[in-house]
Design brief:
By secondary structure, the chain is of the alpha+beta class. The chain has one domain. Helices cover 26% and strands 38% of the residues. It has a four-stranded antiparallel β-sheet with strand order 1-2-3-4. The termini are close together.
Length: 73
């Protein structure tokens, strides 16, 4: 599991979880589950794009380099 904080909020972040054949993405508020982003992704790039797009709808952004360099095993 990897968690990345939004760069314009100390309270919001997203967590990427490799569930074997899918990658699950969860939005967090104060480290606690807020909502799921999608129903699972087959690629990390798809999961990243979905997280960025969904959180942008709520006004939250991420550091581009941190998101680009994100890798999960």
């Amino acid at each position: 599991m990897i968690t990345i904080k939004c760069n314009n909020s100390e309270r919001k972040s997203v967590k990427f979880f490799n569930n074997g054949n899918t990658i699950l993405v969860f939005a967090l508020e104060d480290g606690e589950y807020w909502f799921s982003i999608g129903n699972g992704y087959t690629t990390l790039n798809g999961a990243k794009k979905a997280a960025v797009k969904k959180m942008a709808k709520y006004g939250y952004t991420f550091d581009d380099n941190e998101m680009k360099n994100l890798e999960i095993k």
